[in-house]
Amino acid sequence: MDAVQYANYLDILKKELIPAMGCTEPIAVAYATAKAAQVLGECPESIHIRCSGNIIKNAKGAAVPNSGGMKGINAAAVLGAVGGDVSKELEVLESVTANDREKAAALLADGICTFALADTTEKIYIEAHVEKGIHSAVVVISETHTNIVRVLKDGQVLYDQLKNDGKSTEEERRELSVRGILEFADCVRMEDIRDVIGRQIRLNTAISQEGLEHPYGAQIGKTLENAWGGTVAARACARAAAGSDARMGGCSLPVVINSGSGNQGITVSMPVLVYAQEWDVPEEKLYRALVVSNLTAVHQKYYIGGLSAYCGAVCSACGVGAGITYMYGGDYSQVSAAIINTLGNVGGIICDGAKPSCAAKIASSVNAAIMAFHLSMENKSFLPGDGIVEEDVEQTIKAMGYIGRVGMRQTDQEILNVMTGWWDAGCS
């Protein structure tokens, strides 16, 4: 791999694998209001949020970390404005105190916050409008969860992102390929990935253990651990699900995300860790397998887009299948087969927002990835023409991306309609 490609792949890895607290969408809302309150210079007396349908879908039912059990957009917005620390970005609520929670609860009871659907085609879009007396501030986030593109105070523009210098993250992702990912994993210097992968292992293991030890959400991880026994496949599904249980249940522990999602970050890492422990894999091989798993998920997500009706757990499960196959000694054709076998099985899972059932979708997707791994190691794969399976792994990834980004566009809208009650049930 040449130096330019190497630097590009490493840059993607470092940009994608960052720590975050709680569900990313309500945290992004909290980040926006924390920044708006900072610009305003004082705690606002009114807050209005306008955001894209996908933000509403993912933030509507999610528990807000460090909130004492509060849920949803309004809770995230008010808590961010009251006690958020902008410098911590996706960990913006880490330093929230008991006094902040008490103040936020009182302001929510007074009804100072409202939200509405923004008229935008952007998947990730948040406008935070805050006011106090005659003064106001507006912060706009677009494209990624912390990408502030516009800031106003008292109607005057303080910042407006007119252009992006250098190569965008989207352009970097476009250069990914399964073959390139495997080549990078083989040659990457350990000193270049030790910190970023090590942090993912440490943080995601901690929240997974938290989910196994305490009754978060629907307790999918705990239930699977008890019901399915102690096989390595059962543990892999349970550990991934348990991390999501805790995260969706409002646990304040941070996770290292993938493709902007904590659930995807947990999914893409925990099963690989479980298999590495079972097989007593050396640390260096584990780190390289996690590079494969993480970058495969990012590669899939590029074609689908940031938020959609397509469940991101499937993208991460493809990463899991690829990472475990690589760690076992599989070659390019076998890693490709693991990805194809996963997509050919669970490619149709929908995303209906962030909530406790995400853990169950993760368990199902990881289970499919493990099946895909075993099939691939026996050189068995779904063939071109089997449904959405194309001539090779890259074409299959693109085909699934097309379905997720274009084909499920209307599905995404209808899911939002059902979730928000904006639908006609007269279909009997």
Automatic annotation (TrEMBL):
Keywords: Lyase. One of its GO terms (molecular function) is L-serine ammonia-lyase activity. InterPro entries: Ser_deHydtase-like_asu, UPF0597. It comes from the Bacteria. Pfam families: SDH_alpha. Residues 88-417 form the Serine dehydratase-like alpha subunit domain. Transmembrane segments: none annotated. PANTHER family: UPF0597 PROTEIN YHAM. Belongs to the UPF0597 family. This is UPF0597 protein OCV61_18160.
